Amino acid sequence: MPEVVAAVEQAHREEWGRVLATVARLLDGDLATAEECTQEAFEQALRTWGERGIPRSPGAWLTTTARRRALDRVRREAALRTRLPDLVVDEVDDPEEEAAVDVDDRLRLVFTCCHPALAPESRTALTLRLVCGLTTDEIARAFLVPEPTMAARITRAKKKVTAAGIPYRVPSDDELPERLDGVLTVIHLAFTAGHTSPGPELVRADLVARALDLARVLAVLMPDEPEALGLLALLELTDARRAARVDEHGGLVLLEDQDRSLWDREALDRGDALVVRALRLTRPERPPGRFLLQACIAGAHSEAPSWEATDWRATVLLYDRLREVWPSPVVDVNRAVAVAFAEGPEQGLAELDAVADDPALRSWHYLPAARADLLRRLGRREEAAAAYRAALGLVSDGAERAFLRRRLGEVETP
Amino acid sequence: MATRYMFLLYGDESGMADVTPEQWDQMLQAHNAWAESVQAAGATIVSGEALAPSTTSTTVRKTAGTPTVTDGPFAETKEALGGYYTIDCADLDQALALAHTCPIDVVEVRPVIAT
């Protein structure tokens, strides 16, 4: 029955995190068991919906089913241990009460998965598995890790949450800014992994969609946090260019060469509106953070009719602010490129060379690629070719590599 | 339900030999003040000791058949284990907040297995 499968798949995309979050609260933050109960509820949905029809509210049906599974387990365990803690959980489902706690539940789950006591790579993996419902295999492929390695990583992280006593809650106000940054970083990482997939296809649409969903949830749940809005704006503005980023042969098209009529105007409008909303929430004592500033930079590109007509001076100023709140050699490199277009390739090249020795950039192909591009514009073809070769040495495969090869060919032909 | 954590306190021992009695007193006072703040936060210190320098340590190793006894701690690290606390905390967040205020540079926080 294809409509049942489609309904379960849709519910999996939309409801997985919500169901798991509710069950995890019931289980006092036992994520591994919550995951099993949620999985079982979706398996049962495939069977039951086929026999009895698709329920009017799939999310409520799944939550109730997963909750029952969880309660069964708790009772069984309690009986085994003959220890009965306060597990008098009312089974009467009050839909309104459910809706009220539902908000906190998803936030709790996200903050728990992104707890600083977990290794950064585990945070992303755990979030994608538990909040977004991606399978271990999908996550492994997104990060180019063998499936057993990823499975072990996720299992270890879940065990640590329980054994180390990581609380299942949203952090208090004084911890919130730092902890929120951790969550936003994870979502951004998941998006980036999908947006610049290192595999043969340039964009992993599923990862991008899940990251966008999660950023949307966070923006709804934390409407007064400029950085939460800023991240969603950044993702919207970046993803709006998706159709223009790949040519008909699957090759990479740089922002500079993109057909801007292919950009998703609705997504750009959503992103712009979010930037405006977020900027209104900032104050001198609460300046825009790194995600909002990056969204502003993306916005500067999206409103320009062409690459040349971009307000490069404003972009350089935005990079200056970004550098203040988030000093990073990566920001320096991007700023140098903006300087090249605001003031000329020579100035840009000088700025690039000033940061080129940073060891953190050693394996980043974008640095030699950016150098190569500026050298090419200056007509220094031999140096440009050498820089393209250096960049090629740092890219494993995929659309980026094909692009660099093409450019190398251009500067090599007299 | 509280979880018991062991706070393993690490530090550079190189200066320890030259510590004056006044400095030692200051350290003890800092720890006493911290211990009071721990109780005030609602956590309970179960035990705690300061350890003699790792140069006084002897390790008995039984991994390769015959037991061997060697001078020094099990692992050579720049930061040596210098003491510990066991503390009952509400959760890891409370434990980490206390570790932040602990007057020691490096604090490893580990849950104790309930036995």
Quick overview of this protein structure:
Chain A has 414 residues and is mainly alpha-helical. Chain A is built from 19 helices and no strands. Chain B has helices at residues 21-40, 92-101; strands at 3-11, 44-50, 58-61, 68-71, 80-89, 106-111.
Question: Sheet bearing the most strands of chain A, described?
Answer: none
Write down the overall geometry of chain B. flat
Low-confidence stretches of chain B: none
Radius of gyration of chain B: 16 Å
Sheet/helix structural class of chain B: alpha+beta
Radius of gyration of chain A: 24 Å
Head-to-tail CA distance between termini of chain A: 61 Å
Strand content of chain A: under 5%
Tally of alpha and pi helices of chain A: 19
User: Portion of residues in helices of chain B?
Assistant: 25-40%
Report, as a whole number of angstroms, the end-to-end distance of chain B. Answer: 15 Å
Tell me the fraction of residues in β-strands of chain B, as a range. Answer: 25-35%
Average pLDDT across residues of chain B? 88
Structure in words:
Chain A is an all-alpha fold and 414 residues long. Chain A is 70% helix and 0% strand. Chain A is built from 19 helices and no strands. The termini of chain A are far apart. With 115 residues, chain B is an alpha+beta fold. Helices cover 26% and strands 35% of the residues of chain B. Chain B has helices at 21-40, 92-101; strands spanning 3-11, 44-50, 58-61, 68-71, 80-89, 106-111. In chain B, strands 2-5-1-6 form a 4-stranded antiparallel beta sheet, covered by helices on one side. Chain B has a two-stranded antiparallel ribbon with strand order 3-4. The mean pLDDT of chain B is 88. Classes of the chains: A mainly alpha (414), B alpha+beta (115). The A-B interface holds A 115, 117, 163-167, 171, 175 and B 3, 5, 89-93, 95-96, 110-111.
